[in-house]
Amino acid sequence: MPKHFNAAGIPNGYGNKSSIFILAGISFIMHIFLTILNKFPHVYNYLKPITEENAEYQYRCARQLIIMIKAEFMIIFTYIEWNNIKVALEKSSSLGTWFLPIVLIVIFGTLLIYIRKCLK
């Protein structure tokens, strides 16, 4: 089973069959952590000072950001896991050369959109 991919999406580290559960475990722990964190928006760091007038909007905006990031990471991890299985079964040879650029654009694009939205 591939357990590591280089920047081009080609596997360069392999492990045993049980290594497939590592990414699933990380995904599960991350999902639980972000779900719990989403319930406490008052502990986040904000770009603007929180006042009584903007608190509800800022908290809602931050919670939406966490929900979007969580969904994106679950999709990314599912895609990686799916491709790990395909590579192990020799039905594919890599994640694809566009995987890393697309992931970076999606994650940073989401962050930029929500930063801009929350600064209004």
Automatic annotation (TrEMBL):
Top-level division of the source organism's lineage: Bacteria
Transmembrane segments: 20-40, 61-80, 95-115
Keyword tags: Membrane, Transmembrane, Transmembrane helix
Entry protein name: DUF1648 domain-containing protein
Protein source organism: Clostridium aromativorans
Lineage: Bacteria, Bacillati, Bacillota, Clostridia, Eubacteriales
